[in-house]
Automatic annotation (TrEMBL):
<dbReference type="InterPro" id="IPR005135">
    <property type="entry name" value="Endo/exonuclease/phosphatase"/>
</dbReference>
<feature type="domain" description="GH29D-like beta-sandwich">
    <location>
        <begin position="157"/>
        <end position="221"/>
    </location>
</feature>
<dbReference type="Pfam" id="PF19580">
    <property type="entry name" value="Exo_endo_phos_3"/>
</dbReference>
<feature type="domain" description="Endonuclease YhcR N-terminal">
    <location>
        <begin position="35"/>
        <end position="138"/>
    </location>
</feature>
<dbReference type="Pfam" id="PF19886">
    <property type="entry name" value="DUF6359"/>
</dbReference>
<keyword id="KW-0255">Endonuclease</keyword>
<dbReference type="InterPro" id="IPR036691">
    <property type="entry name" value="Endo/exonu/phosph_ase_sf"/>
</dbReference>
<feature type="signal peptide">
    <location>
        <begin position="1"/>
        <end position="32"/>
    </location>
</feature>
<keyword id="KW-0378">Hydrolase</keyword>
<dbReference type="InterPro" id="IPR045939">
    <property type="entry name" value="YhcR_N"/>
</dbReference>
<protein>
    <submittedName>
        <fullName>Endonuclease</fullName>
    </submittedName>
</protein>
<dbReference type="InterPro" id="IPR059177">
    <property type="entry name" value="GH29D-like_dom"/>
</dbReference>
<dbReference type="Pfam" id="PF13290">
    <property type="entry name" value="CHB_HEX_C_1"/>
</dbReference>
<dbReference type="GO" id="GO:0004519">
    <property type="term" value="F:endonuclease activity"/>
</dbReference>
<keyword id="KW-0732">Signal</keyword>
<keyword id="KW-0540">Nuclease</keyword>
<feature type="domain" description="Endonuclease/exonuclease/phosphatase">
    <location>
        <begin position="624"/>
        <end position="766"/>
    </location>
</feature>
Length: 793
């Protein structure tokens, strides 16, 4: 359903193929005569000969190149018209090596527009209906076609019907006869001749052909009918479960009123005869191409009940929950302009769970306790949220809100996660408008209404941007630290600058420099993460980031800050994760007027530093960089500085990301966090490095900082701390403890740890300038920086 998709990857062709293939049975053996491209798409299975025009080269799923140059000789795309440009009407055809010299478009771009005939297997190709493994392929000359009889037409749309339905077959060809079969074989003159209505009393596929003297036989047309269940309401179909008890069965004359039109092919309806069971939803999604419905239409729907993952990345088909829908074969409008059902209010005062997502691995359906079951019990239904409070900035056209009756747990007006509470009460309002500007702490002056659905790993409420009430400014402002330069105190910051290079633009450079010069008040040392090389995400082989650092240094100086120096170790090309060619790394800015690097050789990407005789052997140097635990992740960087005659070792970290973890609201409960294992290993390596230093000098000053990609209460941070370090984040009051927002949840990913002896001499501050804001508010990164000020003795 393409209109559901914002700036993300989706596979609408696959959805269309799956639905069509379920509603229209495949032809069996090789077709008696060439079929059209449209027929090959509609009946995409079995062997067939297809006639059509070469119109394009298939670049990717639903992506075609219609003009030279073409990327390769591996495929062609056919259409029934040489001028066709509608992706849905194109058939990608695989070209084995034996056909590429003659039919490959890279080699033969001038064959665009030529007519060909190809025999092969009809099956999905590039996730859409296609043709693979051709056994014959030839050009055919244009000429006067042999007149062909018009194909037979059925009086009843194929699909779900009630027992006893009569099928009348007709054709526009005069003086012709219709022959048909119901046993799956192709009809011929030896088959049953149609003489009157065919009564359907069981699942039946009628295959019919029109034969007339002097004409080519019509195409064989299939009409598949399925005896449907009748007398069911929407709540019966939804049931008290995440999966319909009628999945894959056919239903007829399901009544409802249209509550929300998602797009030309998808519409939500709600029952006009609700039951009294709050566990069963009264709403359902209906899929029918070009349905033509409007809000307020009363309808009767017939079709097949399916469970579909509506929208998401391809891998989400394995991780996400499906939505119950009716793949409609027929929709009858019985009235227009009907009143919509009263929206169900979502609120903690109305039974919305506020602590538990799921605690029984789906063993019990208990929407009064589990958030994942609660939203399923409302799937497809019209709901409202009373004067919502905004808990995080808009992202991908989604608003993150809670009811006005929901208690918040941060000073900013958001919801922070804790070890046992990932905030099931947060709501996602999908308005499909990424230009809407809002931030944490704002609120709406009226109620928001919409329908509950699911996509991209979350339940969400579809609502129209134009129907939103007015937004009230909450007054949240970007912060400035209270720390000031002090002759005896060292100030150290940790800042994830979110894929920064000179190529990210002057505005981002300005915002980051302003944050360091003004909001952080010019720290003595800044541990940076996600610094890209000089040409950013260009896979050139370059790994040097000197221009990236210099752009930031120059802008900080321009804004009145000190002239920082920098140090880092460039990674091996494409070995540390991140965007290909970007070579993100950790590194340091430091003010040479306040601190200096202890003299020692600088390490290389593959060299490991150690601590001997009070010094790092390589400065800066990487910690055990060839350890398998750091595969496809950043290697920690240790640097030894001198401040007022005292040494301090600062370790910059950027642990592996959470990519690959299962979603909080996915179909596996509890969510499996597979990426955590690597972070725990990395944390153990860094902690052992700290132990090695303290075994030689128990009074050594050590600071470990960076984006750990994990929360303060996780095993990752427990391992990193050990008995040697204090995570200063733990000392920040919970109401102010967050550095990042993800899908409406405020959380800590960025940490600063200090050796135990420094704890009582160290103050900490999270400077909230990014996580709760959008770029329109001055945001420069997706992480808030963390800052400490400490006395080394």
């Amino acid at each position: 359903m393409p209109t559901f998709v914002k700036n993300r990857v989706f596979i609408p062709g696959l959805l269309f193929f799956l639905i069509c293939s379920l509603l229209i049975p495949a032809t069996g053996s090789k077709a008696a005569a060439p079929i059209s491209v449209a027929e090959a798409i509609a009946n995409n299975s079995g062997e067939a000969t297809v006639s059509g025009y070469i119109v394009a080269h298939t670049a990717a799923s639903n992506s075609y190149d219609f003009e030279a140059p073409f990327g390769n000789d591996f495929n062609i795309a056919l259409a029934d018209s040489p001028n066709e440009r509608d992706n849905a009407k194109l058939l990608p055809v695989q070209l084995p090596a034996s056909y590429r010299a003659e039919f490959g478009l890279q080699t033969n771009p001038d064959i665009i527009g030529s007519k060909v005939q190809v025999t092969g297997n009809l099956e999905p190709y590039f996730t859409v209906p296609g043709l693979k493994s051709p056994s014959a392929l030839m050009f055919i000359e244009e000429g006067e076609p042999t007149p062909q009889a018009a194909a037979p037409v059925s009086s009843v749309t194929p699909g779900a019907v009630t027992s006893g339905t009569e099928i009348i077959l007709t054709t526009e060809t005069e003086n012709s006869a219709i022959y048909y079969t119901i046993d799956g074989s192709d009809p011929t003159e030896d088959s049953t001749r149609y003489a009157g209505p065919i009564q359907i009393t069981k699942d039946t596929t009628i295959k019919a052909v029109v034969i007339a003297d002097g004409l080519k036989n019509s195409e064989i047309t299939s009409f598949a009918y399925y005896i449907a269940l009748t007398g069911l309401d929407i709540h019966d179909i939804q049931g008290s479960s995440h999966y319909s008890p009628y999945e894959n069965q056919y239903v007829a004359d399901v009544e409802g009123v249209v509550t929300y039109v998602a797009d030309a092919n998808n519409v939500y309806i709600q029952s006009i005869t609700p039951d009294k069971n709050p566990s069963t939803s009264e709403g359902i999604l209906v899929y029918k191409r070009n349905h033509g419905l409007s809000s307020g239409d009363a309808v009767k729907v017939s079709g097949q009940v399916k469970e579909w993952v509506l929208e998401g990345y391809a891998e989400k088909l394995e991780t996400d929950l499906p939505v119950t829908e009716i793949n409609a074969t027929a929709i009858t409008v019985t009235a227009a302009g009907q009143a919509l059902p009263k929206p169900v209010e979502i609120s903690p005062l109305k039974g919305q769970p506020t602590r538990i997502i799921d605690n029984d691995q789906f063993k019990s359906f208990d929407p009064w306790q589990d958030g994942i079951d609660y939203y399923e019990s409302l799937e497809g239904m019209l709901v409202k949220v009373a004067k919502p409070k905004v808990i995080a900035p808009q992202d991908y056209g989604e608003l993150y809100v809670v009811s006005k009756y929901t208690l918040l747990n941060t000073l900013a007006g958001g919801l922070r996660i804790s070890e046992n509470d990932y905030n099931p009460e947060r709501l996602i309002i999908d308005i499909d408008d990424s230009s809407f500007v809002t931030k944490t702490g704002d609120s709406f002056t009226g109620d928001i209404t919409g329908v509950v659905s699911y996509g991209f790993s979350n339940y969400k409420i579809f609502s129209d941007r134009d129907s939103l009430p007015d937004l009230k400014e909450g007054g949240l402002k970007q912060e400035k630290t209270k720390f000031r330069e002090h002759s005896k105190k060292l100030t150290v910051a940790s800042y994830n600058v979110e894929n920064f290079s000179p190529k990210t633009g002057a505005e981002k450079t300005m915002k980051l420099a302003k944050a360091i010069a003004e909001n952080l008040n010019q720290p003595d040392i800044v541990g940076l993460t996600e610094v890209q090389d000089n040409d950013g995400a260009t896979n050139s082989g370059n790994t040097d980031a000197s221009a990236s650092y210099q752009a930031l240094i120059d802008k900080i100086k321009e804004l009145g800050g000190p002239t920082y120096a920098y140090t880092d170790i460039a990674p091996n090309n494409n070995e540390d994760g991140g965007a290909p060619g970007a070579n993100i790394r950790v590194g340091f800015l430091y003010n040479p007027e306040r601190v200096s690097l202890v003299d020692a050789p600088k390490g290389t990407a593959n060299e490991a530093t150690a601590y001997e005789d009070g010094k790092l052997t390589l400065n800066p140097g990487r910690i055990d960089p060839e350890n398998d635990a750091f595969s496809e992740s950043r290697k920690p960087l240790a640097a030894q500085f001198t401040f007022n005659g005292d040494d301090v070792i600062v370790i910059a970290n950027h642990f592996n990301s959470k990519g690959g973890d299962l979603p909080l609201f996915g179909k596996t409960q509890p969510a499996v966090l597979s990426s955590e294992e690597q972070r725990i290993q990395i944390a153990g390596i860094v902690n052992q490095f700290i132990k090695d230093i303290q075994s030689q000098d128990k009074n050594a000053n050590i600071i470990a900082l960076g984006d750990m990609n994990d929360f303060e209460f996780t095993e990752t941070l427990t391992t990193l701390k050990g008995k040697e370090m204090t995570n200063m984040i733990d000392l920040i009051p919970s109401i102010d403890r967050y550095t990042y927002a993800y899908q409406g949840n405020l959380q800590v990913l960025d940490h600063i740890l200090v050796s135990k002896k420094l704890t009582l001499r160290t103050a900490v501050d999270i400077v909230h300038i990014n996580a709760a804001f959008m770029e329109e508010h001055g945001r420069a990164s997706d992480h808030d920086p963390v800052l400490i000020q400490t006395m080394l003795k």
